[in-house]
Write a structure and sequence with these properties.
With 273 residues, the protein is an alpha/beta fold. 51% of the residues lie in helices and 18% in strands. It has a 9-stranded mixed beta sheet. Helix 6 links the parallel strand 4 and strand 5. Helix 1 crosses helix 2 and helix 3 runs parallel beside helix 5. The chain is globular and about 60 Å long. Bound molecules: ligand C2E and calcium ion (3 copies). Ligand C2E binds next to strand 2, helix 2 and strand 5. This is PAS domain S-box-containing protein/diguanylate cyclase (GGDEF) domain-containing protein. It comes from Undibacterium terreum.
Length: 273
């Protein structure tokens, strides 16, 4: 038993070491990736009850030459911790605006959602950056949706609200991403200048079979309706999920059932938009 314990410790140590090394490699490679155009933005449609695209989310992809695709679920947290998310975030914001202009030029203008990390949002000059990039690209502010998470609301609620108001006065809109997984209370939701809630895919996945997930989805929808907010469900993979969400009053749906994230050029060729 003793040697089994030792083996286990050795196993954990090497797993930890692997993780540290992987983190360092990602950090180093990410800087290189930005410089050498390995990062790309993909679009995933959000559709209405008739399957028509009514918007899209911009998601980052990293095509690393020496490696199979690295998921943003892995490299975004590394970028957050190292501070590199600020440069990545600037780039994403710009890509979002450029995409809006490109879609408008193709006669296919629609709202584009980008993910804004907490560190990015809290930069002292974030509002200025958004204003500058909107001006410079000529992107229509009302079509730019900033997805933020509930984590932003935990501390400095007053500062967060003030900043959100400055941004909404530029014309951009806010969506709360992964809604239901973090710190949520009706009291603060009411005070935020929000446009939309995104129901996290963990609740969508097991609905409508799982009664508690079904109840969570339904109560998010009823709360949103009372607050006058639009609701998007993410991670919709089956027809049953889609039918249930539409019947429950969801405004739009995003997920593999409709389309995977794809390059913008591909998006312009689909019949979706
Ligand atoms: P997220 O913002 O919650 O994005 C939704 C994730 O769900 C995306 O994963 C999307 O590809 C995936 N997804 C879409 N439909 C389905 C479905 O039907 N089933 C399942 N199982 N998954 C689905 P992705 O692209 O791997 O991104 C992971 C996370 O990385 C994002 O989660 C977001 O937190 C972060 N991320 C991605 N791009 C950016 C970015 O440009 N900036 C920042 N700050 N974070 C980003
Ligand atoms: Ca998102
Ligand atoms: Ca999400
Ligand atoms: Ca998520």
């Amino acid at each position: 038993a003793k040697s089994a314990g030792r083996n286990q410790i050795a196993f954990f140590e090497s797993a930890m070491q692997f993780e540290v090394e992987q983190r360092l490699t990602i950090e180093r490679d990410l800087a290189e990736a930005m410089a050498s155009n390995q990062l790309q933005m993909y679009l995933q449609p959000q559709v209405d009850c008739e399957g028509q695209a009514v918007g899209a989310e911009l998601l980052m992809r990293w095509n690393h030459p020496g490696r199979s695709e690295v998921s943003p679920a892995i490299f975004i947290p590394v970028a957050e911790e190292s501070g590199m998310i600020l440069r990545l975030g600037d780039w994403v914001l710009r890509q979002g605006c450029l995409t809006l202009v490109r879609l408008a030029e193709a006669g296919k203008a629609m709202p584009i959602s980008i993910n804004v990390s907490p560190k990015q949002f809290r930069q002292s000059d974030f509002v200025e950056k958004v204003r500058a990039v909107l001006d410079e690209t000529g992107a229509p502010p009302s079509l730019l949706i900033l997805e933020v998470t509930e984590g932003l609301l935990i501390d400095n609620l007053e500062d967060t609200i003030a900043r959100m108001l400055q941004l909404t006065s530029l014309g951009v809109r806010f969506s709360i991403d992964d809604f239901g997984t973090g710190y949520s209370s009706l009291a603060y939701l009411k005070r935020l200048p929000l446009y939309e809630l995104k129901i996290d895919k963990s609740f969508v996945q097991d609905a409508p079979a799982d009664p508690s997930d079904t109840a969570i989805v339904q109560s998010i929808l009823s709360m949103a309706k009372h607050l006058g907010l639009r609701v998007v469900a993410e991670g919709v993979e089956t027809r049953e999920q889609a039918d249930f969400l539409i019947a429950s009053g969801c405004d739009s749906l995003q997920g593999y059932l409709f389309a995977r994230p794809m390059p913008v050029s591909e998006w312009l060729e689909t019949g979706l938009c």
